[in-house]
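step: validate -> pass
step: tokenize input -> pass
step: predict -> running
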Amino acid sequence: MGKFNKMINKKLLKEKLESNKDEADRILSDKDTLQKFLYKVIEKVKGIPVFGQYLEEIPLLCNMVLDFTKKRYNKLPRTSIISITAALLYFLSPIDLIPDFIIGLGLVDDAFVIKLAIDGIRHDISEYKEWKENNEIVSELL
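step: predict -> pass
step: emit ->
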């Protein structure tokens, strides 16, 4: 992602991520909407032929949200779940800083937003991965 850093307006992407947090909170409050949303995210991921370091974390992030909302894993702060969901909202949106239909570049901004979310909750992700390994929870979304 290094060569793309210059073409990405990091401040604008951080603002976009922040602006999605109210919508993320709304989605998290409605189980049916959340389930449909997460499946749409997974379907979009399945349609990406090659993804980099950050986009490959999306299924894990979806499962974190699902395990949290189903009360199987409650060690995450709600702010972390909102941050993940806000980043996934950005990823799912076809209209963003670099439109997804631009082949080769369309997912760069999406990956950067996912990276921002991951960077903010890296410790939470590590703890979740450890919990998941120790509890043999089957992923529902994959």
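step: describe -> The first helix runs from residue 10 to 19.
step: cleanup -> pass
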